[in-house]
Amino acid sequence: MKFLYLYFRKISAVLAVVLALSGCCPAGTFMLQASAAEQTGSVTIKYIVPNAGFTIYEVSRKNGDSFAVTDQFKAYSSAVDLDKLNTTAEMKSAAEILSAYAQRDSLSAYKTGKTDSSSELKISDLEPALYLIVGDVKTYRGYVYIPSAVLLYVPGKDESGDLQYDRSVVMEPKTDRKAVTDKKTSVTAYKIWENDSTSSRPASVKFQLLKNGRLIDTRTVDGNNNWKYVWTGLESGARYQVIERSVPDGYLESFSRSGSKWIITNTRNTTPKKTTVTTAKTTSASHTGSTSKIPQTGQLWWPVSFLFCGGLLLILIGYWRKTRDHK
After folding, report:
1. Predicted model pTM
2. Cβ distance 296 to 39 under 8 Å?
3. Contacts (Cβ under 8 Å, ≥6 apart) of 2
4. What gap in Å lies between CA 225 and CA 127, rounded to an integer?
């Protein structure tokens, strides 16, 4: 019996080492799975104004090799085709459109924060997703600062184009700076139609004017006013945005802006809509488009662990029975 006791002590020690090195025990397995699931990223906003508020919205979330649009942004899939954000201009236009709708409809924020005394804000623990970041209008030292909205992906990419989960995406949003003044301003909005015919477009559309994210006026434009409207007598020092109340069926919307002039283009969409974003684009501040397949991080390894441990247990039982029979 003493021999058998010493034998089992040695076998137990060896087994413990093997299990620890292989990570095959349930605890080790769960630790490995947890570390894979905890792959998150962060965004560092480098701004020029301290105590400036920023809101981050989750537009689409990683789902296997693709990104699935979140429920609250599905309503705007007719306005923005997230599968076609391949250029800086397309990313900028989509960010402008989605930020206006998100603020108008009071969508739920994913995270919020304010820049510190160094005018920086770091937002951590971000799950793999496409995020929309919107900054507040801020008056500072005699000037009004109006940051542009930004769309970016987490994880980011390194210089070679490889996805990096544990890295910071540095964002320096483009900002309009205006001197504080009592002078009034104006906003002009134009409607452009592309890739369609007169017979396919609606008789009119409704423009909505937002001031710092809040709806303040709605106007109808059509062929009689040359698809154009001008708002005058507006307060300076605010962020004004113009959107359509709803995008006509079968069209996609894009924005371009020069100063206080907005051009809203409706392009006839001949491509069937999809419900997921199938590629991951760049996350750099310049938003240069590129594509990359997301690496697999959720492989199912726990059955291997249990099978391996079970096999070792059967070997020990067999050896013990053989020793007992010999005695």
Report:
1. 0.69
2. no
3. none
4. 47
Q: Which two tokens stand for residue 257?
A: 């802006």
Query: What's the pLDDT band for 197 if we cut at 50, 70, 90?
Result: confident
How are beta strands 276-277 and 163-164 bridged, if at all?
A: unpaired
- 3-class DSSP assignment, residue 176: strand
DSSP secondary structure letters along 206-244: EEEEEETTEEEEEEEEEGGGTTEEEEEEEESSS-EEEEE
Tokens 């249990």 -> residue: 306
Domains of the chain are 2-36+300-326 (no CATH), 40-277 (2.60.40.1140)
Contact 123, 114 (CB under 8 A): no
Q: Which residue is it, tokens 């015919």?
A: 197
Position 327: which residue type?
Answer: K
φ, ψ for residue 300, nearest 5 deg = -95, 95
**Residue with token string 């890295």:** 167
Interior angle at CA 155, CA 149 and CA 157, nearest 5: 95
Phi, psi of 14 (to 5 degrees): -65, -45
Within a 10 A sphere around the Cβ of 23, how many other Cβ atoms?
A: 14
Instruction: Say which residue the tokens 């006026």 belong to.
Output: 217
pLDDT by residue (tens digit) across 93-131? Answer: 899 999 999 999 999 999 999 999 999 999 988 999 999
Range list of H helices, the chain: 2-22, 26-37, 88-104, 302-326
